[in-house]
Amino acid sequence: MVFDLLIRGASELLTCGGSPTEPAEKALAAIPRGALGVSGERVAFAGPEGALPPDAVGPQTRVIDAGGGFVGPGFVDPHTHLVFAGERSAEFEARCRGATYLEIAAGGGGIMS
After folding, report:
1. CA distances (Å), 73 to each of 9, 12, 43, 51, in order?
2. Once rounded to an integer, what is the mean pLDDT over residues 42-65?
């Protein structure tokens, strides 16, 4: 099978091979030196680069070299938030009384405080 897209050269390919009822550390499966082949809109291959089918790359295949980087699912959201060390109960009470977020911010409160 000739792929439309092939991502190769990854240090690790992370897949969601386990059951969604398992804890994340068991549901995720890492494939060292993994590759990902796509045909149309579907993943057609996810496995070790050494196990790629011999006919995986054709003249129209777009090949992306991951350069030894990590390849993982696109739904990963790795952002973080700083720890909030204050308390905002007065803002909560103001919201309960009908104050808008803009009114609270104008009074010195809100997320920027």
Report:
1. 16, 12, 11, 20
2. 96
